[in-house]
Records
---
Amino acid sequence: MKKYFRFLILSPCLMAVLCEEDTVVCGFSDPEPYTLNVENTSEIYAENEIIWLNAEVTSMLFDECDETEELVLITDATEFRGGFFLLKLNDGLTGLNAEFIEDFTVDYSLGEPLLIGNCLESVSSLPVLSDDNLTYNYRLGITINSPGDYCIVNTFNNNFNAVEGNNAAIFDAYDTLDNKIKFNVCGDIYTRTGTEGHYFFRVQ
């Protein structure tokens, strides 16, 4: 009887633990990754030439706790922020082969810059909702002021539309770290593996 009574006392605690493990945190699904499009693709750009990029993503997400899984319009544009690192390839660095640059300008024709923290970590964009409320979009142009070999890599799981090619051969001369792109931004080391999903180009 004592053993049975002890089980009755402990069983609510056991059930509480099991219930906690089954608890699902509600919230909206993650936005789809942007696919960045380079409008004027080229292997070589002139100094101060504008490289135009645009991207769009669906504005509809679903509530993970809604069994109907109906899509819901999200009006908070910060949920759909986009961004990328603009890097200059450099094989003369110790343990790195690219460096984040600040010698460039960004012009927005759609959307606006999104500043995060005191350190310029990336080119981050706050998109705008389309007139039909179906997508979030941004369009910007980057202008680089000094010659060299460059690479644009993703920050928020963005990819490039590589139908026209991404000029990956440019990276061959800098592939000193086992097919990895490594760079330092604001004291943190970032790594991107391979060349797929990135865009390489030369400014001269």
---
Amino acid sequence: MTQFFSLSHLLQFLRAFPDIEYIYCRNVPEWELPSDEAIFKTVVKDMKAFTNVTLVWVSSAFATLFFKLFAKQCCELRILYIGLVDVPGPEFQAAIDKVLQQSGAVLHTFRCEYKHREQRTKLGVSTPSLVYNTALEHLDVTITVASLLRTSRIYKTLLSLFTQLRSPCLKHMSMQFFLQKPGDVRPGVDLDTDMETASSDIAIFHAAISYSLGA
């Protein structure tokens, strides 16, 4: 999508190929997508549902608008890959959760790369909702933080993800945490053990990863 010279060029392409199933977008286009869905209605109404959507190196605002404009085409995704260049906000979280819910058991591969804002007060963790994706086979989650990597961030993110997994079909799962500037890592400083692991925390975590999917 980012290789189109203008919105009209994109619309002409979509009219010519209404059976497209795979969309790959890299970077945010220099021209802006309109917030008015009416411009797209005459084009997308005859388009089939996408099976594979990849958005890489895009802003959360662009991804949110994309899922709004192509809502009907993103209801039965089999593969979804989202790579953001910024911190996702609540609007993006609501949009991606809706896509995941609508795709449900059809989705078998989900990959996301998020950035998290540093918070020195109460930690807010935004993780995708996967409770409806009961046939998920491949899950990759990468989270990049700007400076300080806290153990509480890791714990709460993992706990949030594990408590939402409902797929007995999972074959591959990867969860990675990165610093934005790995060359500047200072042992004992950039990895902040800001929480003491109590027995109750361990019990909650074990319960999450031991959840009976057949229950």
